């Protein structure tokens, strides 16, 4: 593991796995709320028309 | 078949849920702006989810795993370069800020404002040509994954492709970008879970990653069953990569993140340019994993087959990964992974179908119409184009045989338009002297390199004697290096823009 490239890829792999796991929850919750807001806006626009 | 009842149930529940949600959004589509850019109601996090889902397709997983199989972990270098490029563009607003502020629906529409309607039309044509050729192998690669990972008979490939296409066409043609955004969100969640679980299981099967490193080193030094032909960790020492390739890939990724229509459509759908920049910066690191996680699977597949008597008959560097996953993933988990891969395929197909249909309608057909169509007519036409593209994909995917690796094919077909459109965009936004003559020259010259590459490659594969008899046997392999075709297309496009613009002074229309 003394090869810097090996260390680079292993650290990046670990960070990617953690980042993906985090994103699924964080972006998942926030984007879900944004979809609800988007639907409300689109429904209002539809009624206005 | 390797799937159990529980796996099929998981897949079924996902498909039904996705289709239901996708079709529900149809009622909000009032016109082409809702259909193409979701009425510009997309906010940051939904943009991140949608961008991440669209740009991580099953085709991505297949070609990145192939890169991992052939190059070890060094195959993920492209992902690191893409992350760097996207972050730089998001931080500086290079191209994307003025592009969003211009308020257009597509890049060729910007070219009409800046240059002329002729440039818009020609750019639209090259964008569609490159885009459709690029997308032409999506269904085929996606179908191969599903067939080889589930143990379906290979003869079922065309039916699997047809079924996939049918599902995607249904909600994309009816609900447009609104359906695509909401289904992308679901697909983002399912894909994220599937990717993480699969990677953890693959690493666990390989000594938590340490075993994989040791086995790749052994393969590189010739101490394993199969020999890896390039350094599995250092891309600069690799015969297949090297400094020239890395440099080209960086330039290529700068062009991708600023001009690739599917990525840019999220910029154009954003509330404003600040939202677009934020979305880019916050999505950038995602692209490391987009390459690295499937590369890990491909490298693990190499090690697995190396230890188990080599590749079985009928399996190649492209289909090794799905076959490997079918052997190591337990029941239930494989169902989640298949659902995740279906999610990846569907989100990409729907995003790309919509993107190219929008460009065909907006930039090729609309400028030729003497009288604008009615609202209903425009919507019907765009939907018909989506279906037409789908049919093309099915037949092209069944007919075209990839001579090399899938990533090189994707990079070269993408370059048909990336090099010239990138040149036009940068010059159009930042060089007041750029004019119509320069733009047309850049478009034509930029496309020559990649198109020549594709034609020569097919002839070389089928009839090498044509070149050998003319003493070109040593020259052709050099010309066919993807970096050579790539750099030449960017160079020719830039040259065309420079010389063409300087050769004639036209009235220019700064944005």
Automatic annotation (TrEMBL), chain A:
Top-rank taxon, per record: Bacteria
Sequence intervals crossing the membrane: 6-29
Protein species of origin: Luteolibacter pohnpeiensis
Alphabetically ordered keywords of this record: Membrane, Transmembrane, Transmembrane helix
Descriptive protein name: Uncharacterized protein
UniProtKB/TrEMBL annotation, chain B:
GO molecular function: transmembrane transporter activity
Transmembrane portions of the chain: 6-25, 46-66, 72-90, 121-139, 159-181, 188-207, 242-263, 284-304, 324-344, 380-400, 406-430, 437-456, 476-499
Keywords: Cell membrane, Membrane, Transmembrane, Transmembrane helix, Transport
GO cellular component: plasma membrane
UniProt xrefs under InterPro entries: Na/Glc_symporter_sf (IPR038377), Na/solute_symporter (IPR001734), Na/solute_symporter_CS (IPR018212), Sodium:Solute_Symporter (IPR050277)
Record's subcellular location: Membrane
Mode of membrane association: Multi-pass membrane protein
Keyword Transmembrane: yes
A Pfam family: SSF
Top-level taxon in the UniProt lineage: Bacteria
Gene Ontology process terms (BP): carboxylic acid transport
Chief place where the protein resides: membrane
Entry similarity comment: Belongs to the sodium:solute symporter (SSF) (TC 2.A.21) family.
Annotated PANTHER family: SODIUM-SOLUTE SYMPORTER-RELATED, SODIUM/PROLINE SYMPORTER-RELATED
Protein name, as recorded: Sodium:solute symporter family protein
Organism field: Luteolibacter pohnpeiensis
Lineage of source species: Bacteria, Pseudomonadati, Verrucomicrobiota, Verrucomicrobiia, Verrucomicrobiales
């Amino acid at each position: 593991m003394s090869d810097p490239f090996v260390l680079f890829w292993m650290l990046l792999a670990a960070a990617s796995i953690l980042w993906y796991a985090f994103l699924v929850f964080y972006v998942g919750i926030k984007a879900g709320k944004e979809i609800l807001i988007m639907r409300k806006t689109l429904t209002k626009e539809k009624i206005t028309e | 078949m390797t799937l159990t009842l529980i796996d099929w149930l998981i897949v079924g529940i996902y498909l039904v849920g996705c289709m239901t949600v996708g079709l529900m959004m149809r009622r909000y589509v009032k016109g082409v702006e809702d259909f193409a850019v979701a009425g510009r109601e997309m906010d940051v996090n939904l943009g991140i989810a949608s961008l991440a889902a669209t740009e991580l397709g099953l085709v991505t997983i297949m070609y990145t795993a192939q890169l991992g199989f052939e190059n070890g972990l060094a195959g993920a270098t492209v992902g690191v370069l893409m992350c760097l490029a996207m972050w730089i563009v998001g931080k500086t607003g290079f191209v994307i800020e003025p592009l969003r502020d211009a308020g257009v629906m597509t890049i060729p529409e910007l070219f009409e404002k800046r240059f002329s309607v002729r440039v818009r039309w020609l750019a639209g044509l090259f964008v569609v040509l490159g885009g459709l050729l690029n997308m032409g192998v999506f269904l085929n690669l996606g179908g191969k994954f599903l067939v080889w990972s589930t143990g379906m008979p290979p003869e079922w490939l065309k039916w699997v492709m047809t079924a996939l296409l049918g599902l995607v066409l249904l909600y994309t043609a009816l609900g447009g970008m609104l359906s695509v955004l909401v289904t992308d969100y679901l697909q983002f969640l399912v894909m994220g879970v599937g990717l993480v679980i699969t990677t953890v299981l693959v690493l666990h099967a390989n000594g938590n990653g340490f075993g994989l490193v040791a086995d790749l080193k052994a393969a590189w030094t010739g101490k394993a069953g199969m020999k890896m032909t390039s350094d599995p960790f250092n891309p600069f020492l690799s015969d297949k990569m090297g400094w020239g390739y890395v440099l080209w890939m960086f330039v290529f990724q700068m062009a991708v993140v600023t001009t690739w229509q599917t990525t840019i459509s999220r910029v154009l759908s954003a509330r404003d340019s600040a939202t677009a920049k934020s979305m880019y910066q916050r999505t950038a690191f995602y692209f490391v994993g987009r390459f690295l996680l499937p590369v890990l699977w491909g490298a693990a597949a190499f090690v697995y087959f190396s230890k188990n008597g080599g590749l079985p008959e009928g399996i190649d560097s492209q289909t090794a990964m799905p076959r490997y996953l079918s052997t190591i993933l337990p029941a239930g988990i494989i169902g989640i992974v298949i659902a995740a891969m279906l999610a990846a395929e569907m989100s990409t197909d729907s995003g790309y179908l919509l993107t190219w249909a929008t460009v065909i309608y907006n930039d090729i057909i609309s400028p030729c119409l003497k009288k604008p169509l009615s609202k209903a007519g425009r919507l019907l036409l765009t939907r018909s184009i989506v279906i037409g593209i789908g049919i093309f994909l099915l037949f092209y995917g069944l007919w075209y045989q990839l001579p090399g690796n899938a990533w090189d094919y994707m990079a070269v077909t993408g370059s048909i338009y990336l090099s010239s459109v990138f040149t036009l965009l940068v010059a159009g936004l930042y060089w007041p002297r750029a004019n119509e003559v320069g733009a047309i020259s850049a478009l034509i010259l930029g496309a020559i390199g990649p198109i020549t590459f594709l034609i020569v490659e097919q002839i070389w594969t089928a009839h090498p004697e044509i070149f050998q008899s003319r003493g070109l046997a040593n020259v052709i392999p050099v010309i066919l290096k993807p970096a050579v075709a790539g750099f030449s297309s960017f160079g020719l496009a830039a040259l065309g823009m420079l010389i063409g613009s300087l050769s004639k002074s036209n009235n220019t229309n700064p944005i």
